[in-house]
Design brief:
Two copies of one chain form a homodimer. Chain A is globular. In chain A, about 45% of the residues lie in helices and about 10% in strands. Chain A has helices at about 5, 30-55, 70-80, 95-100, 105-110, 130-135, 140-160, 175-185, 195-200, 205-220, 235-250; strands spanning about 60-65, 85-90, 120, 160-170, 225-230. The N and C termini of chain A lie far apart (about 50 Å). Chain A has a single domain (about 5-255), classed as Rossmann fold (3-Layer(aba) Sandwich), CATH 3.40.50.
Chain lengths: ~270, ~270
């Protein structure tokens, strides 16, 4: 079964029912998943080089997920095999004062892929209907207005040649506990820990509801959402790689036509 | 011998005398160089995480070199092991119309590292004293004015906390012939080939002289130039990794002090 069918968000769902430990791909072993991921990434790298050479399509991968869900790790996995020449990452943290002076799509729009590029958003404009909603910085009415704005924005991107893949890395609450505890207990990881991680964990249910609502409100065939189970790191990487590969394969990429005048050229 | 001593540009030199096939590091085998590079990159990754956690230092790696000298490959090697969270790349191609409307340092300045970041420049402001000089878009007087501007700019960066490492990837003219020919002959690489590659190859000597002059004019202890022999790709990657590692080691990085209040914290 294609990963794009396996993980595509259904019309109705709750994250509580989605098993974050599910491992439908691979053979269930970490080593097996890692090996599969490497193979898939090598194929992505070939296709991505073609994407870059052809300079026709644009690919945008949006990564969202709770704290510790593995967004950074997922990005790292991609770079382990894909050439950074055509792969770019934009990480969106809390908006700076400058950024907050603009509309919330402004800073995001600046980083969308150009022709031939593949761009990964590590967090995205979705933060503006997630954390802002849970912290009640915006009310329900404003949130729905933003869903519509986001739908419009993404439709425009799709209509102008951008292939969009949106992934929510779904971890269980117990897995998050272990990962946060590891951050606290490991002196080399403690710098990653922030008091807000605990505050947000306390609002776990509210965040899950905000994710469900935002995902359902913005899922579209031209901007599909995938719920990737992320309790297993190797399987998470495999799932994302497979989603990307299937997406690139659907583009029917080709090498630019060879230049006949070069056929006999000898460099001196 | 430290790589920083091995490759640091001497007070007087010509590129003709610098052996592009020299392999002073490693055991002379490709597999050995690859393995060494992986080890060094793993250590860089640890230090880079510390750099990121500490948010005190900024590191800038400038990569320059003739066409096919391996700038893209060198960047790729870094990403194979170093987390992209704190590693950023800025590639500078021919200036766009927008960019050309500003002074030549404008677009470069926007991409310098912030605290905790390591940034790689794939080409840089040095193009503005290299190709522009060879194509006679600027005369000698303007070129010398720019050397001084670049010195001032880099001194400012260094004085405000940026550790600068400048690398020229030095390939031989015959190695470039083979690599250009491979681009032409391989349908998967032909898209990389551009007629200007040949035009520039015809001006090989002029480019080498422009490099020598620019390097000598802008080498400084706070912004050192290293000439890395680049006919061997694995050795090139090893040399760059070693230069970076030694540079990071010299910063005496430390993990941020642990937060005592977290010592007994248990996540629920």
């Amino acid at each position: 079964m294609k990963a794009r069918e396996q993980f595509r968000v259904p019309d109705k769902f709750t994250l509580d029912d989605a098993d974050a430990a599910r491992q439908p791909l691979g053979d269930g072993s970490k080593a097996g998943d890692k090996e599969c991921t490497d193979d898939v990434l090598e194929r992505i790298n070939d296709l991505q080089t073609m994407l870059y050479a052809q300079r026709k399509h644009k690919v945008l991968l949006v990564l969202q997920g709770m704290d510790t869900s593995g967004k950074d790790g997922a990005v790292r996995s991609l770079y382990s095999k894909i050439s950074p020449v055509g792969l770019r990452t934009a990480a969106f943290k809390a908006p700076t004062e400058l950024e907050a002076g603009y509309d919330y799509l402004w800073r995001v729009h600046r980083h969308v892929p150009a022709k031939g590029e593949m761009v990964v958003f590590n967090r995205s404009h979705y933060e503006e209907v997630l954390i802002t909603r849970v912290l009640k910085q915006i009310d329900g009415k404003e949130c729905r207005r933003r869903y519509a704005q986001i739908r419009d924005f993404e439709r425009m991107l799709a209509e102008t040649g951008t292939t969009i893949v949106k992934v929510m890395l779904h971890i269980s609450k117990s897995e998050q506990r272990e990962r946060l505890q590891a951050r606290i207990d490991n002196p080399k990881k403690q710098w990653k820990f922030d008091q807000s991680d605990i505050d947000q964990r306390k609002q776990w249910r509210a965040f899950q509801r905000a994710y469900e609502e935002a995902i359902l409100a913005t899922d579209a065939d031209h901007a599909p959402w995938y719920i990737v189970p992320a309790d297993s790191k190797p399987h998470r990487d495999l799932a994302i790689a497979r989603l990307l590969l299937e997406t690139l394969e659907s583009l029917k990429l080709r090498w630019p036509a060879p230049d006949a005048s070069l056929a006999t050229l000898k460099i001196r």
